[in-house]
Fold these 2 entries.
Entry 1:
Amino acid sequence: MTLLFFEGLSTLSIASKSLIVVIVSGFMPLTALTFFYFMMPNKEREYSKALKEMGIGSSRTVRDTLSPAKYILPVGFAFLICFFAITFFMFASEFTIGLKESLFLEGASFGEGGVGLMRKSLSVLSWAFMGSFIWSSQNIIRRLIAYDLSPNVYYSAGIRIILAASVALAFSFFLSRDASASFGLLNTLPVIAFLTGMFPERIMQYLINFYKNFVNPDDLNEKELSLYRIEGMSMQHKERLQEMGIDNAQNLATASLTELLIETPFGARQLLDWIGQAKLLCYAKNDIDNLRSVGIRTVFDLCKGGKTREALREISDSVGINTPLLQVVFNQIMDDEGIRSLHRFQHRLNSPSSPTDEVVVPDSAEIPESYG
């Protein structure tokens, strides 16, 4: 398979190979230019509309966060990785002439693996690159269409290619440890390498589980403050928020609303609902499901209706929550100016035609929690 792959590449003309190199490596800067010239105006209009509907006055603009200068390094990083990778694989027949011993390509068989093992490793790297590049390209196109092409997307694409190639190569060494037991998998190694490029985390998790005596992975799904405990939070949503350093409900509860509006594709209503849920989860933790059973999903639901002590006692009795605990949580929520501000924003979104006073949001990095 390895020989056929490299021989197939060698039949292409130099002009054809060079054209493929230009197309693949030029994809990254081309999408960045498309975003600025065609998608940025739409992003700015949607952001301004959301602020107007919530009654927020802020001089912070989309271009303050997504300025062209911030894309130079990440786009250049992804471009160089793609350029060197695709150049090597398109001209592999020239580069692989006279292969010598390589610790990277032979692994634990260094000095014993020979040219055959190194060619197999190069094939694994090539298919892993193809898988990771296709996945990253799809992700970039999807983010481009959603007006969500932030600079870290290109850093993520470059790191994903490196991670996929490394994991695929390590997995090939893992399979080679017992050739008789993994003969079937070895025959489909290019397919496995390609899938590793598409889903490197899953193969890495498989290896971690296999060597669990050495590595004890932390299962985020079982944590009290996991993002998966937020209703409406999918795996894609969770991964997108993690790009911004939001790994759990506490991070989401204290995140800046205006920053999330600028740097993510999520609408104001969706973000306010998630933040409201996250704040309640931080207070209630394991009692969150009990509160949801009576329709209290967010901190805003506790703010509604001017709930009295008797009403709180009835809620606690019906769901089995300690009454003093619920009273303390309620008092903390009602005393939180940030929650009251977010509640007002949510009300304005649901009733945009009602007359409201504009709330001015400070521009500095120290935006108070009251504004998300």
Entry 2:
Amino acid sequence: MSKISDKAVISPGAVIGTDAAIGPFSIIQDGVSIGDNAEIHSNVLVHSGTSLARGVKIFHSAVLGAEPQDLKFSGEVTTLEIGENTVVREFATISRGTSARGKTVIGKSCYIMNYVHIPHDSVIGNNIILSNAINMGGHVTVDDWAIIGGMVGVHQFVHIGAHSFIAFGSRVTQDVPPFVLAGGSPIGYKGLNVVGLKRRGFSDEQIRNIKNAYSIIYGTEYNISDAVKAVKDTVEMTDEVKTIISFIEQSERGIIRK
């Protein structure tokens, strides 16, 4: 029995993978690619330029690959890419890119909940959880394994580091470094995401080195540039500490404070 509803509207120019399922009243436009074993529930709109990898699940009334909400957009051909086994829940909206980056990218095994908006030119890594009603500005980058709580607002061009956790209702206006807990108003550093790190197999020694680095960065003795130098001089330069230093040195908006 076919897994594609006869009430779905599918362009002949769309590519549909093996065993993909498409529910009633969904619209799949020309130039869309849907991978094997993907599931598209009812009333989903998938715009041209969208590519869904194997095993992606899209729940009803989501809108994927719509024109960017950017007044500079002038109709250029851009794309949206969603990686394997990512889940997009009801009423989420994800825009394709603009000429600035050319594409919006969502990685593998992400879980994107109801009413999330991911805008143009954003790059969302792998294994990320975006909770209900998160709204982002354009050009946001979220690194692997980050978790963002419900009703969080994220300013355009913000970078959120790997394995970080952002609390419910926060307003993220500066970069959030890797491995940390962040929250409050204004948002600030609240410690390490110890529970998340342990769940992902980080050792006590790795966590201790991360903590040593942040005790200097968020101590009262140094400004950021001096703190980075102090970390390099006094903390064992493990891969995790190198990740922290690289993140801070490349930050364009500056990192959150304590």
